[in-house]
Amino acid sequence: MSDAETYGELAAHGPYGVRPGHALITMVEPHPGHEYAYNRWYEDDHYYAGAMAMPWMYAGRRWVATRDLQELRTPEKSAVAQPVTAGCYLSTYWITEGRYDAHMKWTVAINKRLNRDARVYHDRTHVFTSFQDHETTVYRDGAAGPRDFHALDHPYAGLVLQVVDCAGPAERAALLERLAARELPRRLAGSPAAMVTVFRPTPLPGDRMTYVKQVEGVDTRLTLLWFLERDPRACWAEHFADLDGLAGAEGRVELVAPFVPTVPGTDRYVDQLR
Predict the structure, then answer these.
(1) Model pLDDT for residues 93-132, shown as the tens digit of each residue
(2) Among 38, 53, 110, 140, fewest CB within 10 Å belongs to which?
(3) pTM as predicted
């Protein structure tokens, strides 16, 4: 069977909804002196060849933390980023619900090919990279406004990445229930955040690329993405500076990190990273 015929067979069965059942969330630090080259590689090649061209990865957006945004991060001692300012670029991608396994087969194979063809930029460090399963989305305005499947295409002015580690699986389940039912609706009300998507990490396959470390906290971690309608610098103190207390008794917030969207095809913000 030819490639074209195989594509026809694959499209004829299996899930094909629009819900973001899975995500790739990857925070990366280019090595000093490689900021421009890394950004051009990612913008001009990897965002497409290493992500958006892949089956079932249907939306993506890049985000950047300039130095002033990095300095807003908490806590000072983080289990995710050492130092907490590490990881000035963040990329977020949605994957069709139920298509994680099929997507992973492709992504492992294509990244091996890209590496073999010298199309992987190695002067960078993966600070926080994981595929994640969607748990819930909480909206500020109920049924009004963009849905979570729109979130990476809607022109949001900022994003806050929050990572929470719990003591164990039971504590994570309790925290998730509290967040969805009470804490997130309360914090969203009247805030510049339109929605929060909540994910839990899934382990990477054993044949992943060696420069990507295995995922931590598979049974104990939650990742929250806060989508903002205002620049985080303009509303940080009032709405987000206290997010490190979100976990309560169930765990510990290990990272609260604000970003603004990159401008595709440009080097905007690259000179503001250090």
Answers:
(1) 999 999 999 999 999 999 999 999 999 999 999 999 999 9
(2) 53
(3) 0.94
